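Lab notes, practical 5.
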Amino acid sequence: MALGVPSRRPSATEHIGQLLARGERSFSFEFFPPKDAEGERVLWQSIRELEPLKPTFVSVTYGAGGSTRERTAAITARIARETTLTPMAHLTCVGHTAEELRTIVGGHLAAGVRNLMALRGDPSEGPRAPWTPTPGGFERALDLVRLARSLGDFGIGVAAFPEKNPASASLELDAEILAAKARAGADFAVTQLFFSPEPYFRLVDRVRALGCDIPVIPGIMPILNLRSVSRMAELSGAAIPEHVVDRVARFEGDPAAVRAEGIAVATELCDVLLAGGAPGLHFYTLNRSRATREIFGALASHA
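Output from the prediction step:
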């Protein structure tokens, strides 16, 4: 399955949710706020290298415990101001009162950012640490969706879990929570990373069985280093299938070959997802552009 119609960014008068509601396919890239000047240089180089691909949107994450609030806002505003890209700012409930969140949302609106990713967020101790709401804040992403919907005409994205959220009791509960966020005003969902298509399609089936038609965009991370990606997968509750591990691990000791096989695996996964009706793809770039550009180019070449 090729990319099909080229991705199209929302116009100045629309947001991501409106584009998806028309059935248009979305291709997007995710970045995180860097910690130092060299990281900043790499980030902006990657943004400029990915800009010609004309993604539907790019997102900027929020550190655990709300630790990158100011940097997330600054990078998102700069993308809106200095590039042709459509930015989406991540926003979490962690460490903020409801009034602070109201101010942050208003600041994004003033900066020309019309798309938000509304998340409960991870505790500062990490995603598997016990959840403790901030006094005067919100308990759930659902509350943040309602707040953002009340404050402006935003495109609102939320998280989805093809494999069980580590904090959830069941896959069925995950689907019910996603459907509730859609009813509260979420326009679309982006999944956590995963490495096999079956969990994604089963998630979509569970959500559709609840009468919810929210677009669910798959989150893609190529395996460029098996150890580091395995760690990220474990933290998010994802499992790397044994056959995928075997494919990549046989090149252990040859980083270039590991990288090439990881990109091949990711490209094959994207093909299957698009052929199965996924509304687009969201690439976790880790602030590097090369692997994403290679996967994107491989998909385009299948046309």
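Observations recorded by the TA: Residues 255-275 form the longest helix (21 residues). The two ends are 8 Å apart (CA to CA).
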